[in-house]
Amino acid sequence: MGMVYADVELINGLDEGNARRQLISDEEIRRFPVSILVDTGSYMLAINENIQEYLQLPVVDSKKAQTADNRIIDCDVVAPIVLLFENRRFTGSAMVLPGDSEPLLGAIPLEEMDVLIHPFRQQLIVNPEHPLYAQLKLK
User: Fold this and answer.
1) pTM of the predicted model, to two decimals?
2) Is 125 exposed, middle or buried (0-12, 13-18, 19+ CB in 10 A)?
3) Suppose 6 and one of 29, 84, 124, 130 were both cysteines; which one would form an S-S bond, judging by CB atoms 3.0 to 4.6 Å apart?
4) pLDDT above 70 covers what percent of the chain?
5) 132: CB partners within 8 A, 6+ apart
6) What are 29-54's pLDDT values in tens digits?
């Protein structure tokens, strides 16, 4: 199977909350559309420094991460970030990769959004067993 990309929108979760409280307008919510690599070998959502700079997400932690070439790097963790794909939504944290590194959509947000990789079309799809809502497993 080749590489799979998905068109998603990344949103500053603090801005979204401030808009709900009417502290800012909906137009002031920082949003970033991006084609993201769907990487089932990665656990988390990973954005790059350029996306982080645009969204202005607060750093909440720092973690070490192993890259595809086996290097260990230190990454800031930012939150809250919202990721939208079709009728699905993930709210959580993201690791920040250096520079303009390719953003990655890992297994945890994929599971939470209840989405699948369609093997023949090589694209991210909403789980056809749950087309209207994400259904999570608790067992």
Assistant:
1) 0.94
2) middle
3) 124
4) 99
5) 87
6) 999 999 999 999 899 999 999 999 99
CB 62 within 8 A of CB 86: no
The residue whose two tokens read 């959502």 is 45
- Dist CA 14 CA 78 (whole Å): 11
Q: Which domains does the chain have, with CATH numbers?
A: 4-126 (2.40.70.10)
- Residue 98: C-alpha distances to residues 37, 73, 77, 102 (Å): 16, 9, 12, 9
Question: Kind and range of the H or E element at 18?
Answer: helix 13-20
Beta strands in the chain (DSSP E): 4-12, 31-38, 45-48, 59-66, 72-85, 88-97, 104-105, 115-118, 123-126
Task: Tell me the mean pLDDT in the region 65-89.
Answer: 95
Distance CA 3, CA 10 (A): 20
